[in-house]
Amino acid sequence: MTREDCLAFDATDPLAGHRALFDIPDGVIYLDGNSLGVLPKAVPVRLAAVVVEEWGQGLVRSWNTAGWIDLPARVGSKIAPLIGAQSDEVVACDSTSVNLFKLAAGALTMQPDRRVIVTEPGNFPSDLYILQGLADLMPGLEVRVVPRAQLIEALDETVALLLLTQVHYKTGEIHDMAALTAKAHRVGALTLWDLSHSAGAIPVDLNGSDADFAAGCGYKYLNGGPGAPAFTFVARRHQKAFRSPLTGWMGHAQPFAFDDDYQPAAGMARLLCGTPQVLGMVALDAALAVFADVDMAMIRTKSIALGDLFLRLVTARCADLIPACPLDGEKRGSQVALRHPHGYAIMQALIERGVIGDFRAPDILRFGFTPLYLGYADVWDAVDRLAQVMETEVWRESRYAAVSAVT
Amino acid sequence: MTREDCLAFDATDPLAGHRALFDIPDGVIYLDGNSLGVLPKAVPVRLAAVVVEEWGQGLVRSWNTAGWIDLPARVGSKIAPLIGAQSDEVVACDSTSVNLFKLAAGALTMQPDRRVIVTEPGNFPSDLYILQGLADLMPGLEVRVVPRAQLIEALDETVALLLLTQVHYKTGEIHDMAALTAKAHRVGALTLWDLSHSAGAIPVDLNGSDADFAAGCGYKYLNGGPGAPAFTFVARRHQKAFRSPLTGWMGHAQPFAFDDDYQPAAGMARLLCGTPQVLGMVALDAALAVFADVDMAMIRTKSIALGDLFLRLVTARCADLIPACPLDGEKRGSQVALRHPHGYAIMQALIERGVIGDFRAPDILRFGFTPLYLGYADVWDAVDRLAQVMETEVWRESRYAAVSAVT
């Protein structure tokens, strides 16, 4: 496999034209779209118009005239087809963590005789923390943390809810959503899926899997910008019974009646809490346009090819970096994990050379592959620079070992 | 009082120069800064730079290099002096409703032997709804809704928390924060103040009043833009004991250690939940610059003068509009309420004539006075147009009676 082979793949790639929809810095190979997606070119124009025209000139009238009030439903309906949901089953609002709280607490109120939530160790920390906070609030609630291999057998008649992240944030392993949901339903449990590393990355089929609840992130593969609003899904069959614990005014049946008593809105609107964060919402709305004319199967095919190519080149050229993700592309999300005891310093040295991935404690170098703005030659070049970092051992320089606040 | 008198006041107004810091549409007199503040000119420039440079070019690195990760604390520290708090007592995050939930639930965990929260009827609906949702989650919790005149006597040894909005969203009446807090403390209760209609509008002295908790809105008098992040305050003496029920990863002591177990961060960081909404946060950050060189006492003096002038002119020229707010400026927030059975249609007719206020069910016309961008002649002109609407009874035209989704 040569760089020329990769250029040949790029020349026939049906998704290659989508790169022009994004602003990517010169000289950067960006393998961190699983942390923060790159800037879609449509966003700055739209955001400036919203600020200067809709806010500046329209002022408070824009809640109606510019449709701000409908943004949570409108953005949700654009995310829905990416995750196998109906357009009236998804709204965009709040953060992923806040939505996980709503959904877990709401699911428990639908299961009054059960007080066990099953999840797995090493799940994304916020998922675990949110359950721990909920348990502090609801005496008697047990958060049962079960290793991945024992999840199926752990689902029994005591379980109210199974909460899992479909694609593991660190290793990229994919849970079998349909099989786990089916087993959960057989014992009367409900399921809540964190799609933060799935939405926009792999085909997700919530309704085909009969899933009950889901939430996910707007700023990774959906490219909504730093801290973009999250999204939340409640299957249509549960919407009438579902009660959010965060009963803010935007979830009221008639928010502008200013009644003293809470009455939940119909449908997904009852998942809303406070006033929608309009600026973040319109950025996400504009960003979603890049998905308008592609289907997730096409993205998935290229995503697996990019990941496989990366792993093949790394195996050939960087023997010290040990894969910590499934080697079978079908079992891996749109990301690759490599292990090295000096992973942090290696990643810093690589970033300095224009290849941006990230590090996840204690020893994982993480690389995301976003088929809409990455090509095969990008992958070849990224491994080339990674091989240089490993061969020269430049990462041993002390300046790369400094602890960073965030990546 | 003539228009010329008003122009003379404007000519000597020490705050008149601040109007140049805002973009106000030509021909509009904006009396709705208590719903959505106008656009500070600093915002579009800053937001564009954040989108194009920090997100577009810096990408994920900007969490460190552009200080995104510090935005909740940095923005909080700019709000702190406006509300009588120390800079390490305030963070910006989430919505007001979500923050009220955190604070009320957290306060209850500090009062394990008490299960009564006192509030008042007609409080802003989200405040009431959030307590109702919390009560559904915590069996045994009683939300005691007590008329304003009986609040002091309702505070007894059963009460865990008093939750009030300092300035009433509709009538503008101001609670005596110091007196109510003192009484609450005498019986061992804690206090939570909603400052949505106070912050940036009137001088607030949380620490001088010995208040325990507070939250408020970023998009009204703070001009942070539609759906701006809210802010939250926990008095320094309570920060160590305070536990948020929304234990997202950004409130963890070491979010990037990716531990399975939640450990609260020190100080106000434990109030954070999900990833900060960067775009909304930088807009609010840029907007707060208009407060850099004014003190709240100066704003308050002009605010009372504008409100008094408005009421005096309305009384003289619009006899059918009955004041529904305190006539004594010292007892009134930076807003005026007028009552009329056809208030909705009157407000629509007035808005069409370029004077923007809002309507609050069932019969209140609401006008906000924002001294940083309104002058005395604006008030004169606003009442002039209102008087025309009333004299011609143009509001009786059926098109003004249509029900609007939002104002």
Summarize the structure.
The structure is a homodimer. Chain A is an alpha/beta fold. Chain A has two domains: about 5-30 and about 295-400, Aspartate Aminotransferase, domain 1; about 45-290, Type I PLP-dependent aspartate aminotransferase-like (Major domain) (Aspartate Aminotransferase, domain 2, 3-Layer(aba) Sandwich).
Account of the 3D structure:
2 copies of one chain form a homodimer. Chain A has 2 domains: 3-30 and 294-401, Aspartate Aminotransferase, domain 1 (Alpha-Beta Complex), CATH 3.90.1150; 44-291, Aspartate Aminotransferase, domain 2 (3-Layer(aba) Sandwich). Chain A has 13 helices and 15 strands. The first copy, chain A, has helices at residues 3-12, 42-58, 62-65, 71-79, 96-109, 125-137, 151-154, 177-186, 236-239, 278-287, 296-317, 343-352, 376-392, and strands spanning 22-23, 29-30, 39-40, 90-93, 116-119, 142-145, 159-165, 190-194, 213-216, 230-234, 322-323, 335-339, 355-356, 358-360, 364-368. In chain A, strands 4-10-9-8-7-5-6 form a 7-stranded mixed β-sheet, with helices on both faces. In chain A, strands 11-12-15-14 form a 4-stranded antiparallel β-sheet, covered by helices on one side. In chain A, helix 4 (71-79) runs parallel beside helix 10 (278-287) and helix 11 (296-317) runs parallel beside helix 13 (376-392). In chain A, 57% of the residues are buried. The mean pLDDT of chain A is 96.
